[in-house]
Design a protein that fits this description.
The protein is mainly alpha-helical. It is built from 15 helices and 2 strands. The protein has a two-stranded antiparallel sheet with strand order 1-2.
Length: 432
């Protein structure tokens, strides 16, 4: 175990928070999967779902370990080649994707021969954030021209968003918001950001109008958004979405201390209780204290991301930490906000806690790259410390050699006088 921990490089605090969230996830996932067990097997045995979640977590941590060993600057070049591949995957998902758990849009693709499905928009978010960080770090030394940035930066961004938007509006909106945040931190001119935001609003409006005019092109999607927003905005009785209604009951039942681990009642009625609405189950079983505790873990992880970004020794490293770390925390806050009806239903999972392979794995890939950035700083610090140790050792050797030479000279001067020729090795010369 000590050898394994010694091989873990990078920010140990980030490692600790990620491990805590993953360990805690087993309890709510084990409890909240009972409704799936009844529906799929009829027995209510959730052990299979717990083992499946364990498999996802183990694969996720293997991903973190492997990725954090890769020098983070390699991802600069990888993002350029990976982005066109991501576009192909998104296009395939849009037209030939798989529907999971009753979703009314195809957001997943199935890996051939393995049978594992993953959500391509999550992979697209990671690649796009690294691509944007690369662009901003490359343009640091030269003024940014708006016309050139439209082609080099914003065209790839909007192509990615257009391929995600029809099937997953919430993910597209989050990615756009995070890209805007990243370019703002990267000192992209504010006047240009205003133009891009305005263009995004106009583009979204046009998409909604086209979707309403041709409903067969994007069946159910725009109507789903509108109904969710209407249900969220109205105060009329019995107008809440069924999921939100059950989530509110679960949260109200939890009180301050909760019903106890595994004692949730609403897990049997709440759809997506182990994924999208797992936070409601956490509050029901662990109470207000448990809900606040989970939120604090994410906020502490967010603070550690800020520290890691501040300590990164390159602009690309700083922007990579922001672009990959902030969306994890933002997604967690959105998931919690939906559960307490602070936001309309979005379908976003709770990172590292909700069940689901692709969401866990994509989060772990992002965390692996972030730890890789901190590992670089750790390696530099260790290298500098090693250089100082070697310099100190060399200086001690030099000092010891000088001391020995001075002692020898002093002994020679004291032991042999110029007049004393008895044992002087220069006696033959002096006698002449």
């Amino acid at each position: 175990m000590k050898e394994l921990l010694h091989r873990l490089k990078g920010d140990k605090v980030i490692w600790s928070f990620v491990a805590l969230l993953a360990l805690f996830s087993f309890m709510p996932v084990f409890s909240a999967s009972s409704n799936l067990a009844y529906m799929n097997h009829g027995s209510g045995n959730t052990v299979a779902y717990l083992v499946k979640h364990l498999f996802h977590i183990l694969i996720g941590f293997i991903m973190i370990y492997v990725i954090h060993r890769i020098p983070y600057h390699y991802w600069r070049g990888i993002s350029m080649f990976a982005l066109p591949v991501v576009w192909l995957l998104l296009a395939y998902t849009l037209f030939k994707g798989t529907v999971i758990d009753g979703a009314n849009a195809s957001r997943w693709i199935q890996v051939p021969f393995i049978g594992i499905t993953f959500q391509t928009s999550a992979l697209a978010s990671i690649v796009l954030m690294i691509f944007v960080a690369r662009y901003l770090s490359k343009k640091r030394e030269t003024p940014i021209a708006f016309k050139s940035s439209l082609w080099e930066l914003w065209t790839p961004v909007f192509v990615t968003l257009i391929l995600i938007l029809p099937a997953n509006f919430s993910t597209a909106a989050i990615i756009f918001a995070m890209v805007v945040t990243l370019v703002f931190i990267g000192r992209y001119p504010l006047k240009y950001i205003s133009v891009i935001i305005a263009a995004g609003i106009v583009g979204l409006t046009m998409f909604v109008l086209v979707a309403k005019a041709f409903p067969d092109a994007f069946p159910n999607r725009v109507d789903t958004w509108i109904s969710r927003i209407d249900n969220f905005a109205t105060d009329k009785p019995d107008e809440d979405d069924y999921q939100i209604e059950k989530a509110k009951i679960a949260i109200a039942s939890g009180g301050i201390y909760g019903l106890g681990p595994g004692k949730s009642v609403q897990k049997n009625f709440l759809p997506q209780s182990s994924s999208d609405f797992i936070y409601a189950i956490i509050v029901e079983e662990w109470g207000l204290l448990g809900g606040i505790g989970v939120m604090l873990l994410y906020l502490l992880l967010f603070f550690r991301f800020i520290v890691a970004a501040h300590k990164a020794n390159s602009l690309f490293g700083k922007l990579a930490v922001v672009g990959l770390g902030f969306p994890i925390i933002f997604q967690a806050l959105i998931n919690m906000s939906v559960a307490v009806e602070f936001l309309p239903v979005t379908g976003q999972t709770l990172p590292l806690i909700s069940s689901g392979g692709s969401s866990i794995w994509m989060t772990c890939i992002a965390i692996g790259i972030i730890i890789g950035v901190t590992k670089k700083d750790e390696e530099i610090a260790e290298e500098n410390a090693d250089k100082e140790r070697r310099a100190d050792a060399l200086q001690r050797l030099v000092d010891q050699q000088i001391a020995r030479e001075e002692a020898a000279e002093l002994a020679l001067a004291e032991g042999y006088g110029i007049e004393d020729l008895s044992d002087n090795p220069l006696k033959p010369v002096l006698e002449k």
